[in-house]
Specification:
- The protein has 193 residues and is α+β, with helices and mostly antiparallel strands.
- Helices cover 36% and strands 15% of the residues.
- The protein is built from eight helices and seven strands; from the N terminus they run ααβββββαββααααα.
- The strands form three sheets. A three-stranded antiparallel beta sheet has the order 3-4-5.
- Bound molecules: zinc ion.
- Zinc ion binds next to loops.
């Protein structure tokens, strides 16, 4: 391997000034495009929308890859890569709206997989796609356990915490009678729990 073109300075903690200045001179969208794998998985529900474009930028906190660059007001900030892509194609994201993934892949930046929605749409989408731990309907076993804890005197808040369910789900579960919960489709509740 030819090492003659390596920088002569010593990188400090992995920081490479030469690379950094190249990075700075390229626009945010160029830097984003350079780190997209356009042969990601096929769109999870609509394969005709093609492959996910997976960003390899570092994910921060919320699970979305982020890239540093200028915002509309000129200040630099970490921004979600899918939002940067959407704005590059469509212009500024209208106030109060969010950019959602129809493919359910948070690292995806394929503009064909992104659409605008409200935060409520996004939460609804998440629930119906089962990304939320509250999305699954209660099983007979869970229902029986919640009712057992309640009749033993546990508070709704404690039961919710223990079962990983919302307060409302627990309240509803307590109100259910075994008869109302039973369904011909699912058969009798299991004997476990
Ligand atoms: Zn996608």
């Amino acid at each position: 391997m030819d090492t003659s073109d390596r920088p002569t300075h010593t990188p400090i903690y992995g920081f490479n000034a030469e690379k950094a200045s190249i990075k700075k001179s390229a626009s945010m969208i160029e830097r984003l495009m350079a780190r997209l794998n356009k042969k990601g998985p096929l769109h999870s529900t609509e394969p005709d929308k093609g492959f996910c474009w997976i960003s390899s930028h570092r994910k921060v906190g919320n699970g979305y890859p982020q890239i540093m660059g200028p915002r509309a007001d000129g200040t630099n900030a970490l921004q979600c890569t899918h939002r940067v892509m959407w704005e590059h194609i469509n212009g500024p994201i209208p106030k109060g709206l969010v950019v959602m993934h129809t493919c359910d892949n948070r690292a995806c930046c394929n503009p064909a997989h992104l659409e605008l929605g409200t935060q409520a749409d996004n939460v609804h989408d998440m629930m119906t796609k089962g990304r939320s731990r509250y999305a699954k309907p209660l099983s007979f076993a869970e229902l029986a356990l919640i009712q057992k804890l309640r009749s033993a005197g546990d508070t709704i808040a404690r039961i919710a915490k223990q079962s990983g369910r919302s307060l409302n789900t627990v309240r509803n579960a307590i109100r259910q009678t075994p008869a109302s919960y039973q369904s011909d489709l699912f058969g009798p509740p299991p004997l476990t729990a």
